[in-house]
């Protein structure tokens, strides 16, 4: 007779314990343990294994380039490293309503002619998927739909259809009868992912699984889920903005620094081939507190507008608000302005915003933040054709940044006339640009270059 055993599993990392604990010893998460009942048979005995494996030298193996399939979107292909790799397992995460299912359905339509596509949904019915397909004007007869959550049934369907691409929407709704816990639990997610990975690797079927995210922005389930798959993509964006950023955080077949930009419209996701012109398109006038900065996302340069606002505080402790950059970075740069530039911001509320609803963490924005805050404090506008590039240290020096040539080419292409860059970067420039390039050593020189000092 089968024996019933209970174990306690951490919902964050999957750590198992015989008893409940308030704090997980593996990931230090509090109150994350919940009980799972495991049913084990008492067949006893060990399975006999007749396989013999002899390791071979690595040099005897022949490395071949992975076969890739284009998704039909250059932005997505860039993030993937050139397209979907045959037999790979891709995990796509994002907040509810961000556009994951819409993007996936459009990818299925773009891959017309590549073979059959099996769309497995455990959340929506066929009628709901068809309504979305009609809105997106999708007419691909090769897309097959299966509304199922049992992994055994899905496995049989894959064996029968033999598709080139499989979509699992979503991994948290799938379950296996071999595990007694509910669908979406740590054990179920871990087992289902391992089963899907075995299917796609053995049969060389490209598989995309959609995952829910927690309130912290991480994909729900154990962290081992991200370790098992080949590629992890996050679809990001503010709810009240139409722009979406597809960011790769793990990629065994390409770079993890690339991003793809899309815009959510009535007909679905449309890719943005020149995001710099979109992000600065509404900058018609030239108010104080506004500056253009050049950031790098992977190999792509982005020109972004930064806006700063300083106002006399009516409270004892002035407010510091950062939207789109790290809050701690803003407070650090304000301290540099006070100490090295002599600006008394101790009684000023300081607000900073990255226009477009995107988030940038690159240090090359430091000089732009300094100049935008100084411009707002002095109520002096920065010349419209100026781009600021540079990292700022605690002593007020402007430090070198990488890939300066690509940033300058992007500024030149969009018609800017003057670039303020670190002096050490200017010394190493080899090409000539149709730009007035000003090298600065510290924030004082940068402010003097545009009339703020």
Shape assignment = globular
Query: Radius of gyration, rounded?
Result: 27 Å
Q: Beta fraction of the residues?
A: 25-35%
Helix content: 25-40%
Query: How many β-strand runs?
Result: 23
Poorly predicted runs of 5 or more residues? 41-47
Strand order of the largest sheet: 8-7-9-10-6-11-12-13-14
How many angstroms separate the termini?
84 Å
- Mean residue pLDDT: 86
Task: Sketch the major β-sheet.
Answer: 9 strands, mixed
Any overview of this molecule?
Belongs to the RecA family. RadA subfamily. Keywords: ATP-binding, DNA damage, DNA repair, DNA-binding, Hydrolase, Metal-binding, Nucleotide-binding, Stress response, Zinc, Zinc-finger. Mean pLDDT is 86; it is low at 41-47. Helix 8 crosses helix 9 (366-378). A nine-stranded mixed sheet has the order 8-7-9-10-6-11-12-13-14, with helices on both faces. It has a seven-stranded mixed sheet with strand order 17-18-16-15-19-22-23. Strands 2-1-3 form a three-stranded antiparallel sheet, with no helix packed on it. The chain is α/β, with parallel strands linked by helices and 453 residues long. The radius of gyration is 27 Å and the shape is globular. The longest helix is centred in the middle third of the chain and has 18 residues, at 186-203. It has twelve helices and 23 strands.
How is this structure best summarized?
Keywords: ATP-binding, DNA damage, DNA repair, DNA-binding, Hydrolase, Metal-binding, Nucleotide-binding, Stress response, Zinc, Zinc-finger. The protein is built from 12 helices and 23 strands.
Describe the secondary structure blueprint for this structure:
Blueprint: E1 3-10, E2 16-17, E3 33-40, E4 68-69, H1 74-80, E5 84-85, E6 89-94, H2 100-110, E7 117-121, H3 126-135, E8 143-147, H4 151-161, E9 165-169, H5 186-203, E10 206-211, H6 224-228, E11 231-236, E12 243-251, E13 259-265, E14 268-271, H7 275-279, E15 290-297, E16 300-312, E17 320-323, H8 327-340, E18 348-354, H9 366-378, E19 386-388, E20 391-392, E21 398-399, H10 404-413, E22 418-422, H11 423-427, E23 436-440, H12 443-449
Helix pairs in contact: 8-9
């Amino acid at each position: 007779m089968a024996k019933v055993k209970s174990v306690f599993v951490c919902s964050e990392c999957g750590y198992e314990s015989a008893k409940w604990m308030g704090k997980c010893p593996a990931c230090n998460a509090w109150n994350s343990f919940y009980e799972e009942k495991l049913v084990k048979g008492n067949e006893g005995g060990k399975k006999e294994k007749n396989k013999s494996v002899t390791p071979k030298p690595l040099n005897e193996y022949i490395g071949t380039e992975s076969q890739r399939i284009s998704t039909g979107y250059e932005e997505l292909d860039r993030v993937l490293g050139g397209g979907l790799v045959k037999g790979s397992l891709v995990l796509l995460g994002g907040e509810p309503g961000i556009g994951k299912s819409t993007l996936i359905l459009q990818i299925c339509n773009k891959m017309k002619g590549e073979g059959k596509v099996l769309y497995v949904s455990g959340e929506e019915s066929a009628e709901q998927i068809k309504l979305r397909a009609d809105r997106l004007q999708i007419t691909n007869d090769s897309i097959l739909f299966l509304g199922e959550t049992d992994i055994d049934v899905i496995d049989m369907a894959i064996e029968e259809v033999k598709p080139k691409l499989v979509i699992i929407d979503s991994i948290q709704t799938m379950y296996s009868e071999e595990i007694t816990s509910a669908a979406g639990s740590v054990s179920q997610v871990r087992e289902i992912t391992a089963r899907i990975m075995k299917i796609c690797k053995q049969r060389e079927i490209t598989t995309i699984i959609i995952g829910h995210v927690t309130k912290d922005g991480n994909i729900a389930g154990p962290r081992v889920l991200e370790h098992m798959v080949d590629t992890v993509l996050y679809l990001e964006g503010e709810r009240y903005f139409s722009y979406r950023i597809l960011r790769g955080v793990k990629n065994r077949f390409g770079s993890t620094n690339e991003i793809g930009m899309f815009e959510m419209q009535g007909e679905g996701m449309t890719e943005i081939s020149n995001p710099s012109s979109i992000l600065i398109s509404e900058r018609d006038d030239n108010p104080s507190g506004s500056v253009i900065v050049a950031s790098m996302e992977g190999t792509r340069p982005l020109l972004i507008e930064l806006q700063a606002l300083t106002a006399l505080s009516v409270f004892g402790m002035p407010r510091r608000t950062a939207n789109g950059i790290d809050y701690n970075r803003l407070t650090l740069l304000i301290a540099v302005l006070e100490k090295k530039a002599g600006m008394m911001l101790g009684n000023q509320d300081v607000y900073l915003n990255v226009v477009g609803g995107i988030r940038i963490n690159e240090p090359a924005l430091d000089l732009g933040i300094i100049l935008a805050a100084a411009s707002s404090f002095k109520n002096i506008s920065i010349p419209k054709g100026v781009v600021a590039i540079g990292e700022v240290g605690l002593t007020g020096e402007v430090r070198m940044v990488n890939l300066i040539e690509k940033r300058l080419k992007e500024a030149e292409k969009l018609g800017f006339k003057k670039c303020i860059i670190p002096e050490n970067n200017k010394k190493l420039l080899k090409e000539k640009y149709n730009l007035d390039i000003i090298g600065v050593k510290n924030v004082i020189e940068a402010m003097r270059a545009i009339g703020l000092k």
